[in-house]
Amino acid sequence: MNESERDAFDQALDTRVIQGRSLWVDAWHRLLKNRAALASLLVLVVMVALVIIGPMMSDWDHEIPDWDNYSTPPSLETGHLFGTDALGRDLFVRTLIGGRISLLVGIVATLVSLLIGISYGAIAGYFGGRVDNLMMRFVDGIYAMPFMFFVIVLMVIFGRNIFLIFVAIGAVNWLDMARIVRGQTLSLKNKPFVEAARACGATEMQIIRRHIVPNLLGVVIVYVTLTIPQVILIESFLSFLGLGVQEPLTSWGALVNEGAQELETAPWSLLFPAGFLAATLFAFNFLGDGLRDALDPKDRV
Amino acid sequence: MLNYSLKRLASAIPTLFLLITFAFFLIRIAPGGPFDGERALPPDIEANLAAKYHLDEPLPMQYLRYLWQIVRLDFGPSFHYLDWTVNDLIAQGAPVSFTLGGLALLLALAIGIPIGAWAALRQNRPGDYAVMSIAMVGISIPNFVVAPLLILLFAISLGWLPAGGWEFSPSRMVLPVITLALPMIAYIARITRGSMIEVLRSSFIRTARAKGLPEKEILFNHALKPALLPVISYLGPAAAGILTGSVVVERIFTIPGIGSYFVQGALNRDYTLVMGVVILYGILIILFNYLVDLIYAWLDPRIRYDDQEAGA
Amino acid sequence: MALLEVRDLSVSFSTPDGVVHAVNGLSFDLEPGETLGLVGESGSGKTQTALALMGLLADNGRASGSVKFRDQELLGMSSRELTRVRGSKISMIFQDPISSLNPYLSIGDQLIEVLTHHRSLKRKAARERAVEMLERVRIGDPLARMRQFPHELSGGMCQRIMIAMGLLCQPDLLIADEPTTALDVTVQSQINALMGELSEKSSTAILLITHDLGVVAGLCDRVMVMYAGQEMEMAPVVTLFAEPAHPYTEGLLNSVPRLDRARSGILNAIPGNPPNLLQVPAGCPFSARCRHAWEACRERPAFAEVGPDHYKRCHLERLPEAPPET
Ligand SMILES: Nc1ncnc2c1ncn2[C@@H]1O[C@H](COP(=O)(O)OP(=O)(O)OP(=O)(O)O)[C@@H](O)[C@H]1O
Ligand code: SF4
Ligand SMILES: [Mg+2]
Asked: C17-31, C61-75, C278-292: which has the minimum mean pLDDT?
């Protein structure tokens, strides 16, 4: 648990001891000591398994109403573990199906933003100079804009379709990655070991694969872990406003929106999807924090 | 300082320009004209409307016209509420939204900073862990979940506060302001804690201790200012976060602010209204960031100095 | 009565890899007005010794033993009592002067607060005193300096300011931890000259931590040589340079470039590395690197008197003649 304490010691200690161990082994040891991060990892694994397998195990379908049970509270007798909504649909299945969409959006949109961010940042960093300057000014410019609103505008203009959600969120969320990758590329470009590799006749591809990618991997992992919850949040925000996924699909945000409207009569229809959503975001954030501490002990806020 | 502020202002202008250009072309590439929708209009009326809104002119002309319009802060007519201009709608909603947002920001600073500093002084002790875990919960629970829960608890179960509706009265502001402030409190607490820990480890704090100053004096005279600089930097994103949050909060608490107009506009495909709000928010955020930079420079003597160097 | 009596001082740090024993049973006295040099390789525990005296160890550090200042025990003193000693009776200046000053406060504010706090002076009186002190450490245009911020000044200037700050309350003891290491060579000699002036003119005792034996020769009355957190040799300066009695001291002296050596330019650095402080060896800590080591060195030697005011921790009767240089 004493992550930061440990970090402080490590810094104060003779650095030779630390450099002896490999970065990854060391990071792994730090992570294993961070019980909150490990618990979060467990929560996420269980969550993914549940979301995939759960709906298959259930007797109910997320669209077909149970004509005998409208807005019934959770109970074992009716077989509706999380109760039903105002249309008589089983909330357990709906929550898990919604979770599939939310997690899927989170992962796919993150990958989109990763792709854009890495290409953009690598190009800027690789060329450097004026190109870099211009490209980064553009990024700074977009940074200053209310990007959530642009997502909404994109949704409004191009219609509400799930693929668009991936792209729209990914398209506005790549800025951080671009900055990170650019910085890393710039600093790596002129490192002695890259020069040395080049002098030894390594091709650009080999250099990128052997030197640049491994160095970037750590930041990318942390970035992905912290971006997925952001994206899930944006999607559920859109769905909550009625601008995200549309019926018959659903997501945690859409379910929370429905639940909020039945707050007085059927609070469970809010609490279950909200709980799943919050637990997932919480676990991702904690894991991301833990990974960051583990991989880069100096940069811990 | 004056030099610096002018330079910063100059660098804000391209950003504004980018924003407006982006907005203009987004509207233009939107499929379908603004007037086709549920009500199909006869062709001659549509032509009239197009002429009225200059949609028949060449694109560069329209672009320049749009720029000039925005420079005068004229967002044009609403495409949905035909009798209203976007400016009218904004003028109605702005006081409400800005009151809520401003109060939330103040509340977040007033609570987040002391909590963060407190946790930093108890680094890695139970109190610190407790506070930081709660902060993580605050960050992880979206405001559209928090708001219904607050309503469920304080309005429906306890009946202490109204669940929604609007007038300028404290009882109607409490829940919306708290909802807006909660995630920011959490962020500010985390930022303050992190930077405070960093500052307390620095050599100049050791010097202050070696000088025999009491811990309290060290905290307030030596550590607080540098520890707050990251919080100041966060204010820019925080303002953007409040604007986003207001969309949700105004909808849940049925508050007639810009946020709810925005959502209505989005659902109605009211392009001008939506764009007007986006541009207004963009301008606000850019201005706010500018202001934050000035405060930062005023607090950090090194930035002022660099500027003198460069200016001389 | 000695000004400072350090007895059996130990400093240890608890770390995930084990306990780091940075200082191990150190004892020494410091007389009023005296300048004591503290030398030793990097990591020998000089800084931690000084920080322990000031009660400024890192959070994971613990000091044991006894440190008596004017018969008052400093170890275990409450932080409230400590604030009355620090900065007023004992001051300390650090290695890196620029980062030791608060970048967000003007030089004036940082000087004035010492006086308003310890001497309860009004700001105006405190300002006058501060300006006077800046003049004493030879800072030109002190009024302008008072308004400036640390980053606007050079490292040497900042170190002068740190010294002035340390002297504001006319302390009995000034601890200077490598005050010139971070500075340019020309500035180093200026600061050293200033320190020399201080040690002569004022009644303030100085504990001078340094790597530079030349500085020790010029400034100090007595020297203590440290290794692995223990005292290896202690002697008046002249004695130490003329008749070093410990192989480690000899090694340090040999590693100093000297013009009078036949083959100038060749440095004889001591081979090997200091021991791992996670596990301080039971016998003589220097034995792994000592070229005179023999069986007896498996026992820890006592810190024994070998001449007037001259002590060493070594089993050798006397140091053999140095072998011919290669
Ligand atoms: N907070 C800490 N935690 C663990 N070990 C520490 C800590 N602070 C110092 N040490 C260790 O204590 C030992 C003594 O350090 P010290 O700073 O006293 O050396 P020094 O003689 O001043 O060296 P230098 O000449 O490099 O300044 C070092 O090995 C150092 O790694
Ligand atoms: S005791 Fe032995 S090992 Fe230690 S310094 Fe003396 S001779 Fe060398
Ligand atoms: Mg040191």
From this structure: C278-292
Is pLDDT of B98 > 70?
yes
User: In angstroms, rounded to a whole number, what is the distance separating the alpha carbons of residues B120 and B133?
Assistant: 14
Using the predicted structure, report yes or no on whether residue A23 has a pLDDT greater than 70.
no
Residue B167, C-beta contacts closer than 8 angstroms, at least 6 positions apart: none
Q: Confirm if B289 and A144 have CB atoms less than 8 A apart.
A: yes
Show the tokens assigned to C109: 């504010």
Check CB contact of C274 with chain B, cutoff 8 Å. no
Average pLDDT score over residue span B62-72: 82
More confident residue, A91 or C89: C89
Token pair listed for A202: 């390594």
What count of residues does chain C have?
326
In a domain, C152, yes or no: no
Residue C314 CA to ligand 2 center (angstroms) comes to 5
Q: Is the CB of C22 under 6 A from ligand 1?
A: yes
From residue B9, how far is each of B13, B72, B239, C61, C140 by CA, in Å?
A: 7, 18, 18, 49, 38
Which residue ranges make up each domain of chain A?
Answer: 99-299
CATH 1.10.8.80 is the classification of domain A99-299: no
The C residues from 89 to 118 touching B (CB cutoff 8 Å) are 91-92, 94, 96, 99-105, 113-114, 117-118
Percent of chain B with pLDDT over 90: 16
| SS3 label, residue A63 | coil
Calculate the alpha carbon distances from A191 to A136, A299, C314 in Å. Answer: 22, 21, 48
Does any domain span residue C127?
no
Which domain does C249 fall in, by range? 4-99+171-313
Is the model's pLDDT at C233 over the cut of 90? yes
Q: What is the largest CA-CA distance in chain B?
A: 85
Distance C322 CA to ligand 2 centre (A): 15
Q: Is C54 in the pocket of ligand 2 (CB under 6 A)?
A: no
Is C321 a domain residue? no
> What phi, psi does C73 have (nearest 5°)?
-75, 125
Q: Is the peptide bond before B14 cis (omega within 30 degrees of 0)?
A: no
- Report CA(C49)–ligand 3 centroid distance (Å): 9
Return the CATH number at C24: 3.40.50.300
| Distance separating alpha carbons of residues B241 and B248, to the nearest angstrom | 11
Structural domain includes residue C142: no
The pTM (predicted TM-score) of the whole model is: 0.81
- Measured CA angle at C222 (ends C155, C214), to 5 deg: 45
C319 ligand 2 Cβ < 6 A: no
Task: Indicate if the pLDDT at residue B311 is higher than 50.
Answer: no
Q: How confident is the model at residue C50 (pLDDT cuts 50, 70, 90)?
A: very high
Q: Which amino acid is at C160?
A: R
Residue nearest to atom 1 of ligand 2 (CA): C314
Alpha-carbon distance of C121 to C129, in angstroms, equals 10
Question: For chain C, what is the domain count?
Answer: 1
